Amino acid sequence: FHSGEREEKCVIEDVPSDTLVIGNYKVQRWDIHKQDFLESAPGLGMFVTVTTPSAEILMSKLYGPQGTFSFTSYLSGEHVICLQSNSTRFVAFAGSKLRIHLDIRVGEHFLDESVVQAKDKVNEVNFRLEHLIEEIHHISKEQNYEREREEKFRKRSEETNGNILWWAIVQTLILISIGIWQIKSLRDFFISKKLV
C-alpha cells in the first residue's frame, strides 16, 4: 500500500488467543527525478504499534526501513497493527510518498534449520512431525475461535429477532387500540349530531 510520510496506516487482523503473529515489511520512497519507487534512504524507519481488542497497546517499537516484528496475542479478537514512518521535515525528501510492502502471517511456527539439515533422517522426520502436530493444534485452536464467534453471532441474532417480534406485537396492539378508539369516537360523534 502507499502512504505519505508521517501518515499512519492500520491493518486489522482477527487473531485467536495465544497465537504467534509475524509481520515482515519493506519501505520504499518515491524518487521525483527517476519517477519510480527506490529503496528507502538510511535513517527512515517505521513505528509499529499493535493494539489489542481491549484497546491496550501490546507492542510499540521503532524499526528500520525493512524489518520483521512479531507478537503473541493473549486475547482473541481484532488486533490493530499500525505503521507510521519516523521521518521529519528536515529530511531531504520530506512530504514524499512511501510504498510499504507488508506480509503478515498468523500462527506461524519457526523451523530450526539446523535440525532440518541434520544428517540423521530420524531426527528430521521427528522434528517435521512435531511441527505438523503444532500446526494441527493451531488449526484446531483457530476452528474453536471461529466456533465461539459464530455462537456469539447466533445468540445476538436470536435476541434481535426476539426484540423485533415483540416490537411488531406492540405496534399491532397500538394500531388496534387506536382503531377501536377512532371507531368509538366517530360513533359518539354521529350519535351526538343525530346522524345515526
From TrEMBL:
Membrane topology of this protein: Single-pass type I membrane protein
Keyword vocabulary terms for this entry: Endoplasmic reticulum, Membrane, Signal, Transmembrane, Transmembrane helix
PROSITE patterns reported in the protein's UniProt record: GOLD (PS50866)
Residue intervals passing through the bilayer: 164-183
GO cellular component: endoplasmic reticulum membrane
Domain GOLD: 8-106
Protein name per Swiss-Prot or TrEMBL: Transmembrane emp24 domain-containing protein 11
Source organism of this protein record: Phaethon lepturus (White-tailed tropicbird)
